[in-house]
Amino acid sequence: MTSALLPTYARAPIAFERGEGAWLVARDGRRYLDFGAGIAVNALGHAHPHLVEALTSQAQKLWHTSNLFEIPEGERLGQRLVDATFADVAFFANSGAEANEAAIKMARKYHAAGGHPERFRIVTFEGAFHGRTLATIAAGGQQKYIDGFGPKVDGFDQVPFGDREALLAAIGPETAALMIEPIQGEGGIRTVPPEMLRDLRALCDEHGLLLVMDEVQTGVGRTGRLFAHEWSGVTPDIMSAAKGIGGGFPLGVCLATAEAARGMTAGSHGTTFGGNPLAMAVGNAVLDVVLADGFLDHVLRMGLLLKQQLASVMDRHPGIISEIRGTALILGLKLDVLNTTFTAAARDEHLLVIPAGDNVVRLLPPLIITESDVAEAVKRIDATAGRLEAQMRGAAE
Ligand SMILES: Cc1ncc(COP(=O)(O)O)c(C=O)c1O
């Protein structure tokens, strides 16, 4: 089919018409179990009644006023995020990349405000993904996203994941911050060990650097804690979140301590749409559910169940799945077959999963999944692996 859209995406040939919880219904009526959640976005599944109510009732009152005026629902959401985290202040944006842009600018401005504008460099880690703006592709350091777009934005030094020597060598008099995802999502569900996060915190304290965490994919309950870094006991100075925080409505946030945000004075940063009344209404509604008693325990229970059942699928299909990675409801299957082949075969079983780097497929279901959704997903993953084994046998004959 010819399309008027810029061909930057390799889209699967399915269009969905509506969703209900963890299920999506295609235009031809076929139902798919959604274990991708729009790449970790639909944290509460599709058409969650509380979110629908929040969005539609706000839509009847007021959509947008700009940040030239006070936005009470934004004040409320900011305060709730501050109360629930390490942070003292919040800046709302519309996406993960924009939340990271705010984080990067804030880290640089912190040093400028302290009399050290030369400290603007940020150390990042191989396998990272921080977004697709010019600064965030430089931060992510993946050549395939950088090539052809002119000079790479200066100020990002990348070190191999887990290589302490390289990290120490990269920290110099111009270094402002370290920036890391507690679990690399696009990079293939690679968890940063808690002791490494603690070491990064100590290095930051020793060298006067800010620790920036990108929780765009890992945040808002996905690991069974509100934010993934909480598992390590380490707190960042600056953190970005997006995806799940809007439950499907475009929303990002940069959270920071007052100290880290000291340079961000009136007029130093801004956005037209960020934090608008629609986004704030939905953001507050998402938090109502995620912060309710027992919700994160539910995420942990479903995550454990899923991981246990996947372990027996892996045992049954040794030539297909070689490793299970991740925490709670951000899981990765490291594969011996091509991850895009697996994703397409899973789609034939009416299960949606998402490829990632390192030949992994990600399972990022809505956090509201039930035991029967878990059982159904496991059955379909088992069938997908069986289907691929049969294809491999057929090709060998
Ligand atoms: C860890 C991380 N950071 C940043 C981003 C970019 O977010 P967005 O696509 O909303 O700009 C993503 C998106 O996948 C991500 O996973």
Task: Kindly describe this structure.
Helices cover 38% and strands 18% of the residues. The protein has two domains: 50-290, Aspartate Aminotransferase, domain 2 (3-Layer(aba) Sandwich), CATH 3.40.640; 294-329 and 369-397, no CATH class. Strands 4-12-11-10-7-5-6 form a seven-stranded mixed sheet, with helices on both faces. Strands 1-2-3-15 form a four-stranded mixed sheet. Strands 13-14-17-16 form a four-stranded antiparallel sheet, with helices on one face. The protein has 397 residues and is α/β, with parallel strands linked by helices. The chain has helices at residues 37-40, 49-59, 72-84, 96-113, 134-140, 143-146, 164-170, 194-207, 277-290, 295-316, 339-348, 371-396, and strands spanning 16-20, 23-26, 31-34, 89-93, 121-125, 156-159, 175-180, 183-184, 190-191, 210-214, 238-241, 252-256, 321-327, 330-335, 351-352, 354-356, 360-363. Pyridoxal-5'-phosphate (PLP) binds next to helix 4.
